[in-house]
């Protein structure tokens, strides 16, 4: 049996026929790509004391990660990568409600796994930078590699409003980009334009809370830090650096 025939036979055996399973795996892969690049850019910035990265590279990493995620699996699952986007699609009747909780679980799980991958990738750097202590606040905190924390002047109310407005702008922008009745984006370049949208929001609305814009992007990695040694403090309203 030739190599080509063998590969074709293996491919046929590995082919997943169940559409829901395929969509879930695609959504998991796209969310994984989004979060690993986003958190990786943050880890590079923080653990190098901003020598090998800064706020701009972190924003670029997060924006380009959206583009990579959409190109990775957009044709199979739609690459929602965000419970807020899945919810908006349900409200518009473009996504079935019964799939919504399934996608949310998949997105959070993928984010959790991505956080673990970044922790492994930057394990030595994290422990070296933190002087062997995993903290949520202070000059050597590393929790903000994985989850976003508010500035010390931001109240709970202002933080809530910040996220509602930021996520709302993201949803309206994405819907406008995908609406065929608007000025059309060249076919195949929609992910690039969405990435630019994310970059614009990060650059204008990131000061208060770090601009997560995505419940899965924040909750999955935050859960990881809780179990990986940062402890319950990751769920408290704390200063990012103090």
UniProtKB/TrEMBL annotation:
Residues of the signal peptide: none
Family: Belongs to the MIP/aquaporin (TC 1.A.8) family.
Subcellular locations according to the entry: Cell membrane
Subunit and partners: Homotetramer; each monomer provides an independent glycerol/water pore. Could also exist in other oligomeric states.
Gene name of the record: Aqp10
The entry's keywords: Cell membrane, Glycoprotein, Membrane, Repeat, Transmembrane, Transmembrane helix, Transport
Ranges that cross the membrane: 20-39, 59-79, 100-122, 160-178
Role: Aquaglyceroporins form homotetrameric transmembrane channels, with each monomer independently mediating glycerol and water transport across the plasma membrane along their osmotic gradient. Could also be permeable to urea. Also participates in cell permeability to H2O2 and H2O2-mediated signaling. In skin, transports glycerol to the epidermis and stratum corneum, where it maintains hydration, elasticity, and supports lipid biosynthesis for barrier repair. In kidney, contributes to the reabsorption of water, helping the body maintain proper fluid balance.
Catalytic activity: glycerol(in) = glycerol(out); urea(in) = urea(out); H2O(in) = H2O(out)
Cross-referenced Pfam families: MIP (PF00230)
Membrane-topology descriptor: Multi-pass membrane protein
Entry's Gene Ontology cellular component terms: basolateral plasma membrane
UniProt protein name: Aquaporin-3
Superkingdom to which the source organism belongs: Eukaryota
GO MF annotation terms: glycerol channel activity; urea transmembrane transporter activity; water channel activity
InterPro entries registered for this protein in UniProt: Aquaporin-like, Aquaporin_3, MIP, MIP/Aquaporin, MIP_CS
